[in-house]
Write a structure and sequence with these properties.
The termini are far apart. This protein is an alpha+beta fold. 30% of the residues lie in helices and 22% in strands. The strands form three sheets. A four-stranded mixed beta sheet has the order 1-6-7-8, with helices on one face.
Length: 412
């Protein structure tokens, strides 16, 4: 006779391994994000009313821009691209004065450029504009598109981010510093990192594996790379209490990585959305960020959702918090707001929901104003995560925890 299986929490494993990856600014997709956000900032430097949806593609020695921009700003698009490539170090001049060669086809000193940017559709513009229009449901500024956006925070790190993505980003930032300060001038811009963390009873316990793959000059051996990066990067970046004798290190596991960047792989804006957010620990609505002005709620509402979730956790109302927002194009109010604390709340979750709705406004015009998003700040957010960055809170305003007292007061 069939007997149904009974499942309770005590039957389930209390440990698991979760991995997240990051990529550096020289990864082909991140090159595209960097260019797109550089153009967005160039527009906002002259015209804060700019509407920007800039997409970039790179391959071999070609850079192609596409999308829609409506702006009064005037600048040299090709120069913006070149300056971005020089900053990333896709530049044959970078190797001058070192013992290493630069052999990448993708070079700021010699690239093919095509600009296919057009203007924003007037049908979309009338939905976003704070003005009435035929058959428009409201005269308020509406969302720039329909869609769902998520924000997430947890108390695993001081910046309230999950451990795997936080340390993957730190590895990426530090390998970039090793390259840019010339202490390891054999490094080239295209690198990827990955950290696997064992959780026990929901808490980070140890790092089980670290993966670092980096493009390099032809003159250095794989053995040298592995020795240098283990000592100078991994051991100096990751906390010793999370590394154990059993931690596995995979450094350039394929061996040679001389051909990289856009020569090795085509790049597109917006393909690293999990790297940009929570490394897979929090959900994602699917919309990319880079190259979009804040009228596009794919970006700005995701920033707003992170702002809310971070303040909820910082206020001690929950150990983990995820906020989902959903919008209809042209309409100002979200069609839904959902808060999930995954059973970690320290007050009634209904109180948290009420507090969130009372303390924050979720109309795009309001949170664009409150977070001061009509500024040329976006290039600072492009690489090593749009969230968890507390190096410049004046720019990355969605990382502030200035609503803690207000939330506590409402929940008291």
């Amino acid at each position: 006779m069939y007997q149904p299986i009974k499942i309770c929490k005590y039957d389930m494993a209390n440990s698991y391994i979760f991995s997240s990856e990051s990529v550096t600014e020289g990864h082909p997709d991140k090159v595209c994000d960097t260019i797109s956000d550089s153009i967005l900032d160039a527009c906002f430097e002259q015209d804060t009313a700019s509407r920007v949806a800039c997409e970039t593609m790179v391959k071999d020695n070609a850079v192609i821009l596409g999308g829609e921009i409506t702006t009064s700003a005037e600048f040299d698009y090709e120069k913006i691209v070149k300056d971005a490539l020089v900053e990333i170090n896709y530049d044959s001049k970078y190797a001058e004065g070192t013992d290493y060669s630069y052999t990448c086809k993708f070079d700021a000193q010699n690239f093919f450029f095509m600009n296919l940017l057009g203007q924003q559709s007037p049908d979309i513009a009338q939905g976003v504009d704070a003005a009435g229009a035929d058959d428009k449901e409201t005269e308020e500024q509406g969302a720039g598109d329909q869609g769902i956006m998520f924000g997430y925070a947890c108390n695993e790190t001081p910046e309230l981010m999950p451990v795997p993505i936080a340390y993957s980003h730190r590895l990426g930032e530090n390998i970039t510093k090793l390259r840019k300060d010339r202490s390891q001038s054999w490094l080239r811009p295209d690198s990827k990192t990955q950290v696997s963390v064992e959780y026990v009873d929901g808490k980070p316990n140890r790092i089980t594996a670290v993966v670092v793959s980096t493009m390099h000059a032809a003159e250095i051996t794989t053995a040298e790379i592995r020795e240098i990066l283990k000592k100078e990067l991994i051991e100096k970046t990751l906390p010793t209490d999370l590394l154990t004798d059993e931690t596995a290190y995979h450094i350039n596991p394929t061996g040679l990585f001389i051909i990289g960047g856009p020569e090795g792989d085509c790049g597109l804006t917006g393909r690293k959305i999990i790297v940009d957010t929570y490394g897979g620990m929090g959900r994602h609505g699917g919309g990319a960020f880079s190259g979009k002005d804040p009228s596009k709620v794919d970006r700005s509402a995701a920033y707003m959702a992170r702002y809310v979730a971070k303040n909820v956790v910082a206020a001690g109302l929950a150990d983990r918090c995820e906020l989902q927002l959903a919008y209809a194009i042209g309409f100002p109010d979200p069609v839904s707001i959902h808060v999930d604390t995954f059973g970690t709340s320290h007050v009634d979750e209904a109180k948290i929901v009420s507090a969130v709705k009372e303390v924050f406004s979720f109309k795009p015009a309001d949170f664009i104003r409150d977070l001061d998003l009509l500024r040329p700040i976006y290039r600072k957010s492009t690489n090593y995560g749009h969230f968890g960055r507390e190096d410049d809170l004046n720019s990355l305003t969605w990382e502030k925890t200035d609503k803690v007292d207000a939330l506590k007061s409402v929940c008291a």
